[in-house]
Specification:
The chain is of the alpha+beta class. It folds into 3 domains: about 110 residues, no CATH class; about 110 residues, no CATH class; about 160 residues, no CATH class. A 5-stranded antiparallel sheet has the order 1-2-4-5-3, with helices on both faces. A 5-stranded antiparallel sheet has the order 6-7-9-10-8, with helices on both faces. Strands 11-12 form a two-stranded antiparallel sheet. β11 and β12 form a beta hairpin. The mean pLDDT is about 85. Keywords: Membrane, Transmembrane, Transmembrane helix.
Length: about 475
């Protein structure tokens, strides 16, 4: 059998080594430490690992030193049970398992005359320290955020939920490159229908590789919508709270946030501050809901007033701002122009070094904004309205709702410009009906409002008494 065709380990040590070299394309970071082991005859052996992702000290102390002290052994099982000091070891025969193990930082032990190998976990991945979340910060409460290492993230969750009811299912996604994915849920709390559907959609993923969690998000969302039906979270405390609510969290190796399902519309208006401080339990969510409405309707309402309802504004101001306006472009072009400037500033602030962000912001706000107004390219009121619209959308950016705002603000802008107030009202009604039809893994998106579920209202528009919220069991309605 050709080396490239073999599916299991060979009894010949040389053939196995040559096969692995070919599979790794003679990569220089594949290290091979050859040695001999005493048996009834002296046998050749080899220890293989990938340099850079393996703890060399662990290889030396827990694998090489014990192997060199072996006097006699009957099988590979004896090597595992009597000699190796590594905590996590397994016997393998399939080359697919060998290649996957080496790629994950494990060390492979091969002995001539045996068509079996031993994989010992000696991985040492480089990682950044655990830091505060960037987009979901809290004035008071935990300052810990997820990082890119799956084991670190699971460790953080385990530290917060020290209970045997925390269940973790480990999967591997990817046909060519296997990426570790963990499904987390609380036994006795989790919604079983959501769990089964989550497990099904992830296991059915057919991709060559998985580098971004967006692939899993798309699979969990199913039918494409304007609105996000999965919640992305950088905070372990929020993830833990979601698990106790009966929801499911997904962690992906290399991704510094969790994916939480089901994700309902009201979840995007909940913030950690409400549970860590006394103030804001009644008004903060209404403020964020108002910000969301403001961010999608303000521009449409503004062009509606300019085009059809200038009589709503006192005559003195209407003459100054609307009737005697001598700007170069019509109002809708002004709005699109300012929105383009704001979007360019946002993109620039993400792509340039942090030290130059302030300079770019000053250039955009002072030079471009004031110059455009002075040159009468845009009206000063237009600049103020678009600025307010931009700020209101930023306040609800966490979790993934911001993407829907970008689309809906354009929809309502054109509805207001061409159809006026009636267009805005009809568009809003259609949007609510559309949202009522959306499902997040079978759970209605507007629950507990549509369908109405009074028992869940204690933590909906305002934060209820924490003891009652914590002690009550959450349930989710399911509709197909």
């Amino acid at each position: 059998m050709n080396n490239l065709e073999q599916s299991t380990l060979n009894v010949s040590l040389d053939k196995n080594i040559n096969y692995l070299k070919e599979q790794f394309n003679q990569s220089t970071d594949l290290k091979i430490r050859q040695l001999t082991i005493n048996d009834e005859v002296i046998r050749d052996a080899a220890v293989l690992y990938l340099d850079g992702i393996t703890n060399i000290e662990a290889v030396q102390d827990n694998i090489l030193a014990p192997l060199l002290r072996v006097i006699k052994f009957d099988s590979m099982d004896v090597i595992i049970t009597r000699h190796l000091l590594a905590a996590d070891v397994m016997k393998v025969t399939l080359n697919e398992e060998v290649l996957a193990g080496l790629s994950k930082g494990k060390t492979l032990i091969l002995i001539d005359g045996y068509n079996e190998g031993i994989l010992a976990d000696t991985a040492e991945w480089q990682m950044r320290s655990v830091t505060e979340p960037d987009t979901q910060r809290s004035v008071k409460g935990s300052l810990v955020g997820f990082n890119e290492q799956l084991k670190v993230n699971v460790n953080i969750i385990r530290n917060r939920i020290q209970s045997h009811k925390l269940s973790i299912e480990n999967l591997q996604v990817g046909n060519e490159t296997k990426t570790d994915v963990s499904i987390l849920y609380m036994d006795g709390f989790v919604d079983q229908k959501v769990l089964e559907e989550t497990r099904k959609r992830i296991t059915e993923l057919d991709v060559i590789y998985l580098l971004e969690a967006r692939v899993i998000e798309d699979a969990l969302e199913g039918k494409k919508t304007f609105f996000p039906t999965v919640f992305t979270c950088e905070r372990p405390d929020v993830t833990v709270s979601a698990l106790y609510e009966g929801r499911v969290a997904i962690l992906v190796n290399g991704i510094p946030y969790s994916i939480i399902v089901p994700s309902l519309f009201l979840h995007y208006f909940h913030q950690p501050d409400e549970y860590n401080t006394k103030s804001g339990r009644y008004g903060n969510r209404f403020m964020r809901l108002f910000s969301w409405l403001f961010s999608i309707i303000l521009l449409g309402a503004y062009v509606t007033i300019v085009r059809f309802h200038q009589d709503w504004v006192p005559d003195h101001f209407a003459k100054i701002f609307f009737k005697k306006s001598d700007t170069l472009f019509p109002v809708i072009v002004e709005i699109l122009f300012v929105m383009l400037i704001f979007q360019l500033l946002t993109e620039a602030s993400l792509r340039i070094p942090k030290s130059t962000v302030i300079i770019v912001s000053l250039i955009g706000a002072i030079v471009v904004g004031q110059t455009a107004v002075a040159a009468k390219l845009i009206h000063s009121i237009t600049l103020i309205v678009v600025g307010l619209n931009f700020l209101s959308s930023i306040s609800i950016a966490a979790g993934g709702l911001y993407g829907s705002v970008l689309t809906l603000r354009f929809v309502f802008l054109f509805l207001g410009y061409f159809f006026g107030l009636k267009g805005l009202l009809i568009g809003f009604i259609i949007m609510i009906a559309y949202m009522a039809s959306i499902r997040s893994l079978g759970v209605p998106y507007l629950a507990p409002f549509i369908p109405f579920h009074p028992k869940e209202m204690k933590d909906a528009l305002f934060r209820g008494d924490l003891r009652k919220v914590i002690n009550s069991k959450h349930t989710f309605p399911h509709k197909k």
